[in-house]
Backbone:
């Protein structure tokens, strides 16, 4: 390729011409120096196509191993080393957590403590029940005094964040109500303007009552007591015009009043009260064990598995999810995922029962604490109970 040098030649000629013009001045005695400080060469720029070769993509980094929290597995190990589960419970609410004159614990929540013992040990008797008041319960869980709290406790945002603890699956959907003497003439919340209302200290019940009365512009005097026994004793003695707690609690406590039929629960619901177990933060394995123990009871009802037929189902049922649930799948061991034996779910169902059995035993139509299931039905019947897949 030829380059044209005409521009360079022109610049050279111009420089010589300037030098010639300066000569006469020198001849007149005025010497001048012409200094060329820069020579600029102009060339033609030729564009040359350039092929851009992309850099090689770096090799994908190896997937790091999952980080195991420092507390992972600590609770289950402590329970096994101890040889028993310590379950924080209520001892004053028939149907949920109650102690009979012989010192035996029974109730809906008590059965979930037994279900955990069945999952861990295959033995429902390896449980120590630790009765706690509403004010004691969260500190007992935080301090490690108990392994799990299963004590008609309402799931709220602040309780889920401020107590160093987490709620697992809801076992009972409830709502706050009010009970009054049948002959009081009180039929609605507005009739309680100026009344004295018995309520338990340190509960969401106390706060909900204040919110609902304030929203309606109603005045009342709260009579606050330490525990359920003293709260309902005061109501029974006529020291307050009404008493309030979760509707399930009202039903259970009414059953042990001297004349249950002399009291009515108003047709008003003051709040949402999802009740369920609570565990300490920091041990995801224990969280999973408690949560999936609850889900076992839901799923067993959904699949039609009971404490009475579980052996036959385990032997004959060919449904893949049922086989995984009961530990008969030869390829998958779901118990190992939780640090439990392969028959952990079978033990729960065999020794405690499915959700319907637990419910009917403690709150069913043949009990003094009967509460229609309502939202506590399986999702198959329009309720809120639903277990994720066992797979």
Residues:
């Amino acid at each position: 390729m030829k380059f044209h040098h005409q521009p360079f030649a022109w610049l050279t000629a111009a420089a010589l011409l300037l030098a010639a013009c300066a000569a006469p001045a020198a001849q007149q005695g005025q010497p001048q120096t012409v200094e060329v400080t820069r020579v600029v060469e102009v060339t033609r720029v030729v564009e040359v196509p350039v092929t851009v070769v992309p850099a090689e993509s770096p090799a994908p980094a190896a997937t790091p191993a999952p980080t195991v929290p420092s507390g992972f597995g600590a609770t289950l190990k402590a329970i096994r080393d101890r040889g028993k589960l310590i379950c924080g419970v209520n001892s004053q609410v028939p149907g949920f957590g109650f102690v009979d004159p012989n010192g035996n614990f029974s109730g809906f929540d008590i059965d979930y403590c037994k279900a955990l013992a069945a999952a861990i040990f295959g033995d429902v008797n390896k449980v120590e029940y630790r009765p706690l008041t509403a004010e004691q319960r969260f500190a007992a869980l935080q301090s490690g005094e108990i392994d799990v709290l299963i004590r008609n406790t309402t799931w709220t945002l602040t309780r889920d964040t401020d107590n160093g603890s987490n709620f697992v699956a809801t076992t009972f959907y409830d709502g706050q109500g009010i009970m009054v003497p049948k002959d009081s003439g009180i039929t609605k919340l507005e009739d309680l303007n100026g009344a004295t209302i018995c309520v338990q200290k340190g509960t969401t019940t106390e706060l909900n009552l204040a919110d609902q009365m304030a929203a309606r512009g109603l005045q009342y005097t709260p009579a606050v007591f330490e525990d359920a026994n003293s709260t309902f004793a005061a109501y029974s003695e006529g020291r307050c015009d009404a008493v309030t707690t979760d509707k399930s609690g009202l039903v259970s406590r009414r059953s042990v009043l001297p004349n249950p039929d002399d009291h009515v629960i108003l047709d008003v619901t003051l709040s949402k009260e999802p009740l369920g177990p609570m565990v300490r933060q920091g041990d995801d394995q224990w969280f999973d064990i408690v949560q999936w123990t609850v889900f076992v009871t839901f799923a067993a009802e959904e699949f039609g598995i009971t404490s009475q037929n579980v052996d036959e189902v385990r032997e004959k049922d060919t449904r893949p999810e049922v086989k995984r649930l009961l530990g008969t799948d030869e390829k998958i061991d779901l118990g190992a995922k939780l640090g439990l034996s392969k028959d952990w779910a079978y033990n729960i169902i065999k020794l405690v029962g499915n959700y319907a059995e637990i419910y009917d035993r403690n709150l069913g139509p043949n009990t003094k604490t009967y509460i229609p299931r309502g939202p506590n039905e399986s999702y198959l019947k329009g309720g809120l109970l639903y277990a994720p897949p066992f797979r």
Summary: Residues 194 and 257 are 25 Å apart (CA to CA).
